[in-house]
């Protein structure tokens, strides 16, 4: 079993390499990595995964999910920009897609009648394999929704550590809107 420090180090190395490929406009490599979530084309991702990260990356669902997702929606975060986990990303997608002012969308977010099917589906995943498929779809939705940010370092760690603790943290992040973001809604 890996320590959390080892998982963080792997996440940092993985995302740093993905960002280098994006900066160098390595479109061919990124196109191969995008195939990692397609069962019939998956083998195309093995060459860049194995060459850059070693043979363990070829078998790793966390590597494959993060590299495929990054290749589909490259998102390089600035040093001073802190993006949370997938709960945070899904919240930002919900707010952006609501078509309402931020405060009104936040009020809808907290409406107990709202089902939040995307969040519910991710949280219901019992296995990493099931999770990976829905993560890839959520990342593509983030790209389609005003290019919402995804923290790939956190995503990698969360896939490796997938379980109830991560599920609870994602749910908390989805609903955790700071007091500064909530201004009184004027009638």
> What's the rounded overall pLDDT mean?
88
Query: DSSP strand (E) fraction?
Result: under 5%
Cα Rg:
17 Å
How many strands in all? 0
Q: Helical amount among residues, as a percent range?
A: 55-70%
Question: How many domain modules?
Answer: 2
Give the key terms.
mainly alpha, globular, 64% helix, disordered C terminus, 2 domains, 187 residues, 11 helices
Could you please describe the fold and organization of this structure?
- With 187 residues, the protein is mostly helical.
- The chain folds into 2 domains: 4-72, no CATH class; 86-178, no CATH class.
- The protein is globular, with a radius of gyration of 17 Å.
- Helix 5 (61-72) runs parallel beside helix 9.
- The chain is 64% helix and 0% strand.
- Mean pLDDT is 88; it is low at 182-187.
Question: Outline of this structure?
Answer:
The protein is built from eleven helices and no strands. The protein has helices at residues 4-23, 27-34, 46-53, 55-59, 61-72, 86-98, 102-109, 117-123, 128-144, 152-160, 164-175.
């Amino acid at each position: 079993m890996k320590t959390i420090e080892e998982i963080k180090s792997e996440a940092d190395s993985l995302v740093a390499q993905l960002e280098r490929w994006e900066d160098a406009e390595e479109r061919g490599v990124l196109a191969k990595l995008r195939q990692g979530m397609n069962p019939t084309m998956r083998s195309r991702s093995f060459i860049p995964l194995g060459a850059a990260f070693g043979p363990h990356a070829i078998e790793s669902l966390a590597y494959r999910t993060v590299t495929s997702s990054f290749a589909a929606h490259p998102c390089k975060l600035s040093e001073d920009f802190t993006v949370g986990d997938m709960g945070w990303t899904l919240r930002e997608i919900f707010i952006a897609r609501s078509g309402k002012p931020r405060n009104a969308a936040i009020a809808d977010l907290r409406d107990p009648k709202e089902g939040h099917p995307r969040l519910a589906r991710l949280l219901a995943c019992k296995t990493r394999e099931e999770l990976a498929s829905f993560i890839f779809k959520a990342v593509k939705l983030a790209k389609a929704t005003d290019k919402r940010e995804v923290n790939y370092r956190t995503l990698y760690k969360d896939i490796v550590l997938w379980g109830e603790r991560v599920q609870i943290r994602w749910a908390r992040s989805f609903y955790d809107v700071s007091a500064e973001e909530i201004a009184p809604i004027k009638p």
